[in-house]
Amino acid sequence: MNSEFSKAQAGSYAFIGGGQMATALISGLIRAGLPPRAIVVFDPDAAQQERLHASLGVDVGGRVDDRLAGAEVVVWAVKPQVLRQAVQQASAHLRAPLHISIAAGIRCVELSGWLASARVIRAMPNTSALVGASVTGLTAAPEAAAADRRVAQDVLATTGHCFWVESDERLNAVTAVSGSGPAYVFHFLEAFQAAAQAVGFDEVTARELVLKTVAGAVQQAQSGDPFGTLRERVTSRHGTTEAALAQLDAARTAQALKDAVAAACTRAEALSTEFAQQA
Ligand SMILES: NC(=O)c1ccc[n+]([C@@H]2O[C@H](COP(=O)([O-])OP(=O)(O)OC[C@H]3O[C@@H](n4cnc5c(N)ncnc54)[C@H](OP(=O)(O)O)[C@@H]3O)[C@@H](O)[C@H]2O)c1
Predict the structure, then answer these.
(1) In the chain, N or C terminus with fewer CB closer than 10 Å?
(2) Which CATH code for domain 3-166?
């Protein structure tokens, strides 16, 4: 329970966009002690508003209105393509809050310019925020105060682990590793399940075997031993695991993963440049 959260006034946290990431963050904040009445969410989608109000008890609105003026923290949780327009719609109602953007690819310098504010923090959570297990990178506009960084970290930490990077460029690397990372893992799980089915297990059993095997290995890896050491320990010479790993090596899976992360990084950089040119 965060004591700062429990003292928050009505409407002091505003969300622009009430989609799945906003919902994950709002749920985290409420779990951490922020009263639902302290949160107002603006989203043009009536179904989204109804869902948020009914399930979390927060105040909701369609078009941004003067309730935004009371916000001390504004979280921008819309798609990057509509962020600039959302800022334009909101600007007449903004006082001088702390801005936290979770939109991918839009740099602090553009955000600061659009919002006419140096109080800007960017966060890159991942989809595991939905289960309170996000890995979230944060970066701040150079002029953002230490107190603003602390508040942003407190907000994002309600959905998982947070760490700081020094620039938007590094946040592109975060996007490529932990931002897109859950999809790499799901891809592996999918392929592993298919492989289990190929040796005769039905779909449900294959899924369970794969999930429990991965969960057990992740638990073991918490020991802090290097991943390579853990791998070597289960690989006896001329054994079954060695035969399997030889196939993975022949298919260059490690290099493929390296290439995948590099491609995500390049794409994140390209998106940043695209948005910067539109600014
Ligand atoms: N999903 C992830 O894993 C992930 C991870 C890191 C960062 N992000 C970032 O998080 C942001 C939100 O992602 P999401 O998956 O939650 O998106 P989402 O589910 O599409 O939610 C965005 C919501 O914002 C609404 N919206 C559109 N224009 C608006 C406006 N002008 N004012 C207020 N609300 C508006 C949308 O309504 P309509 O649908 O009617 O347009 C939608 O309900 C994105 O920028 C994304 O890059 C996502």
Answers:
(1) N
(2) 3.40.50.720
Closest CA to ligand 1's atom 26: 17
* Residue type present at position 80: P
Q: Is 182 in the pocket of ligand 1 (CB under 6 A)?
A: no
- Among the residues of 116-226, which ranges form H helices? 146-157, 168-174, 181-198, 203-221
Q: Which residues are annotated as a binding site for NADP(+)?
A: 16-21, 77-80
Q: Which residue out of 15, 25, 43 has the highest number of ligand 1 atoms within 8 Å of its CB and is therefore the one to mutate?
A: 43
Does residue 21's CB lie within 6 angstroms of at least one atom of ligand 1? yes
Does residue 79's CB lie within 6 angstroms of at least one atom of ligand 1? Answer: yes
pLDDT tens column, 142-185: 999 999 999 999 999 999 999 999 999 999 999 999 999 999 99
pLDDT tens for 180-200 read 999 999 999 999 999 999 999
Q: Give the span between the Cα atoms of 93 and 70, in whole angstroms.
A: 9
